[in-house]
C-alpha cells in the first residue's frame, strides 16, 4: 500500500459501521478511502494461469488449476460481488475457488475474504505473523488497529512460514515472509507457462511504511525496524521474470495494460520498475531509522 493511501486509511477513523456483526463485535470498515479502491476494472490474463480479478487499484489474483483455483487478496468488503463477476467473466467458476491467500492482513485486502470463504468453502492460509490480526478482523494490527475490527474476522485453516509451499493442481506457490508493513506481510513466487514458454512470477507485497510513529515508539511491534531491514534485503535478492504487487499503482498496471489489450506477459517484466520501487522504499526506511 502506498504511503499516501495509508495516511488516508490511518486518518479515516471517521469510520461507520458496515451493518453486520461477527464474533460478537461490530465491524467498521473505513469509508474515507480512495475511489480507485472500489472502482471496477476489467479482468484479464496476466501470464499462463495467472489472472487479474481485482478493482482498479486493489489487486486480486486468480491462479487457475485443474483441481480448483487460488485467490490472492479480496479487496474491500464491497468487492466480493466484483471479484465473483470478474472470475465468471473470464470463464471460470467462482465455486471452484479452493484456497484463499493474502499478501497482508489489512482491510483493503481482507474486506471480502470472510464472505468469499463462506460462499465457496475455500481454505484460508496465512503467514503466521498475520494470523491473530486476521482472526480478530484487524483489531490488533499494530498500526491500523485499536479501533475495533475493520473487516469480518476470518478463521485460519493453515499457518504458513517463510518458504512454505501452497500446492494445488500442479501449481506450487512459494510463500516469502516479508514483514514490516504488517507482521505477516508476504509475497508469493511461482512458475507458470503458456504456449510460448515459462515464466517465474513474483506477486510482491511492497514494504511501504504504515506508521507515522518513530520505530522505537511502536511498542506493539518491537522488531519493526529489524523486519523492514530484512524484507528490503530479501526483496533485492529475488530473481523473477514478471512481477505484480498488492496495489495496481505500485507496479504501474495502468501504463502496462489497458482494458481490451491482447494477452502480453512481456508487459510485466519491468525489472527496472521493481528495482526503482525497492530503492525508493529503502531510502524512506533509511530516513526513518535516522530519526531518533
Description:
This protein is of the alpha/beta class and 292 residues long. Helix content is 25%, strand content 23%. It is built from 8 helices and 14 strands. Strands 3-4-5-6-7-8-9 form a 7-stranded mixed beta sheet, with helices on one face. Strands 10-11-12-13-14 form a 5-stranded mixed beta sheet, with no helix packed on it. Strands 1-2 form a two-stranded antiparallel sheet. Helix 2 links the parallel strand 6 and strand 7. The longest helix is centred in the last third of the chain and has 20 residues. The chain is globular and about 50 Å long.
Shape: globular
What fraction strand?
15-25%
- Share of helical residues: 25-40%
> What is the subunit organization of this protein?
single chain
> SS-based structural class?
alpha/beta
- Widest sheet, order of strands: 3-4-5-6-7-8-9
Poorly predicted runs are: 1-24
Q: Average the pLDDT over all residues and give the rounded result.
A: 92
The Rg value, from CA coordinates, equals: 18 Å
Largest sheet: 7 strands, mixed
Query: What is the β-strand count?
Result: 14
Could you tell me how far the N terminus lies from the C terminus, measured between alpha carbons in angstroms?
25 Å
**Secondary-structure element order, as H and E?**
HEEEEEEHEHHEHEEEEEHEHH
Number of helices: 8
Amino acid at each position: 500500500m502506498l504511503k499516501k493511501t495509508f495516511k488516508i486509511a490511518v486518518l479515516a477513523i471517521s469510520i461507520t459501521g458496515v451493518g453486520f456483526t461477527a464474533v460478537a463485535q461490530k465491524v467498521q470498515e473505513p469509508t474515507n478511502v480512495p475511489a480507485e479502491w472500489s472502482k471496477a476494472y476489467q479482468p484479464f490474463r496476466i501470464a499462463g494461469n495467472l489472472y487479474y480479478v481485482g478493482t482498479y487499484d486493489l489487486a486480486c489474483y486468480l491462479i487457475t488449476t485443474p483441481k480448483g483455483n487460488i485467490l490472492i487478496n479480496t479487496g474491500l468488503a464491497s468487492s466480493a460481488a466484483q471479484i465473483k463477476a470478474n472470475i465468471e467473466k473470464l470463464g471460470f467458476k467462482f465455486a471452484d475457488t479452493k484456497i484463499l491467500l493474502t499478501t497482508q492482513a489489512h482491510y483493503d485486502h481482507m474486506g471480502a475474504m470472510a464472505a468469499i470463504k463462506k460462499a465457496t468453502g475455500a481454505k484460508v492460509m496465512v503467514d503466521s505473523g498475520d494470523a491473530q490480526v486476521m482472526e480478530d478482523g484487524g483489531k490488533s494490527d499494530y498500526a491500523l488497529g485499536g479501533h475495533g475490527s475493520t473487516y469480518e474476522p476470518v478463521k485460519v485453516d493453515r499457518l504458513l512460514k517463510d518458504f512454505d509451499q501452497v500446492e494445488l493442481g500442479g501449481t506450487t506457490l512459494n510463500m516469502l515472509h516479508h514483514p514490516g508493513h504488517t507482521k505477516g506481510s508476504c509475497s508469493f513466487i511461482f512458475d507458470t507457462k503458456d504456449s510460448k514458454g515459462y515464466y517465474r512470477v513474483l506477486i510482491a507485497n511492497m514494504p511501504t511504511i504504515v506508521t507515522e510513529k518513530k520505530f522505537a515508539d511502536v511498542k506493539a511491534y518491537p522488531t519493526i525496524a529489524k523486519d523492514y531491514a530484512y524484507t528490503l534485503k530479501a526483496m533485492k535478492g529475488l530473481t523473477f521474470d514478471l512481477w505484480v504487487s498488492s496495489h495496481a499503482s505500485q507496479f504501474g498496471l495502468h501504463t502496462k495494460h489497458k482494458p481490451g489489450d491482447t494477452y502480453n506477459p512481456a508487459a510485466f517484466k519491468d525489472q527496472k520498475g521493481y528495482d526503482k520501487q525497492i530503492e525508493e522504499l529503502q531510502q524512506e526506511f533509511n530516513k526513518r531509522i535516522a530519526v531518533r
